[in-house]
Amino acid sequence: MKHIAVVGSLNVDSVVGLARFPGPGETVVGRDHNLFPGGKGANQAFAAGRLLMNTDVHVRMLGQVGGDAHADWLRQNLAQVGVNTDGVLVDAAVSSGVAIIGIEDGGQNRIIVVPGANGTFNPQRFASVHALLDDAAFVLLQLEVPLETVHAAARKARACGAAVILDPAPATALPASLLGATDFVTPNESELRTLLNQAPSEAPLTLSQAQAGAQALLQQGARNVLVKMGGQGAANWGEAGHFHWPAFDVNPVDTTAAGDAFNAGLAAALAQGQTLATAGRFACATAAMAVTRKGAQPAMPTRQEVEALMRT
Ligand code: RIB
User: Fold this and answer.
1) Which residues is 238 bridged to in the sheet?
2) DSSP 294
3) Which pTM value belongs to this model?
């Protein structure tokens, strides 16, 4: 039986909605506050699990929670959409990961992450559950667990013959050996700039700037660079060919985890035998649906919702 494995973080998201972010030394009053299950790894596992419910493709999560009251909630939320959590360890000496998230009017977010148990999910801890990757078809990685663990997971995935989809978030410069162990690396615009050691900028990239950035990462050993460009859609350059998928027109209320939804949609569609051309469009629609609702995991759409958006 085919499966998708996600190796990565689980977080408790503490989310405040507010009219605008405070400046230095300023206090502003928030509109509302919610706790949501999050973490880039768990979000991708949850989204893939929900998309693939009642199919023959199964989803597994490998990672670590802490010894706090939220740990069971984080695992149970994944189990609720059929994700197998046998690979989620407990480090009782620390707390589960936490993300403090502000959502401004219009849906833009700012996130501070405290790794907690994600930070102690080291290669030795990963090795105690890595056999769960043995029959994986796709392995999804992000950068919220230690880089050495991401590296170990990419190597193990390749040894098992799985395709590796690396979401380089939160972005940091990546060694060529890790880029070379991926099948797809999927930065958004700001992450692409960080991977290339360029100065941060809020200006959207043009398609030709994205292409130049992708070519630079291809030269460093990546096989495919799939750039997530928000309102401009997404584009791939590399061995699998060049594609540009336009964005779907939706009203964003919360952009948290849009990138996670995209990667889960991509993997879910590829695991079901779709070509990259159609899987990329499915991934754009998954991300578009996710930004129309609040929260990370609660916002992830069903397959039926994604397909309905694709028909519009
Ligand atoms: O990608 C969104 C996620 O980033 C949030 O759920 C938060 O936990 C942070 O890790």
Assistant:
1) 224
2) S
3) 0.97
Would you state the structure tokens that stand for residue 34, as one six-digit string? 């919610």
Burial 6-21 (b: 16+ CB within 10 A, else e): bbbbbbbbbbbbbeee
pLDDT at residue number 85: 98
Q: Is 260 a catalytic residue?
A: yes
* pLDDT of res. 105: 85
Measured from the CA of 259, which atom of ligand 1 is nearest?
1
- Say if residues 297 and 46 touch (Cβ distance below 8 Å): yes
- Going from the Cα of 98 to the center of ligand 1, the distance in angstroms, rounded, reads 9
Residue nearest to atom 6 of ligand 1 (CA): 38
Q: Where are the alpha helices (DSSP H) in 96-248?
A: 123-127, 147-159, 176-179, 189-195, 207-219
58 CB less than 6 Å from ligand 1? no
Distance CA 218, CA 220 (A): 5
Note the Cα 292 to chain centre separation in Å.
17
Cα separations (Å) of 282 from 26, 42, 246? 42, 20, 11
Question: Angle 30-33-34 (CA atoms, 0-180°, nearest 5)?
Answer: 160
The token pair that represents 240 in the structure block: 């699998």
Distance CA 134, CA 60 (A): 12
- The whole-number pLDDT of residue 200 equals 87
40 Cα to the center of ligand 1, angstroms: 5
Residue 1 pLDDT > 90: no
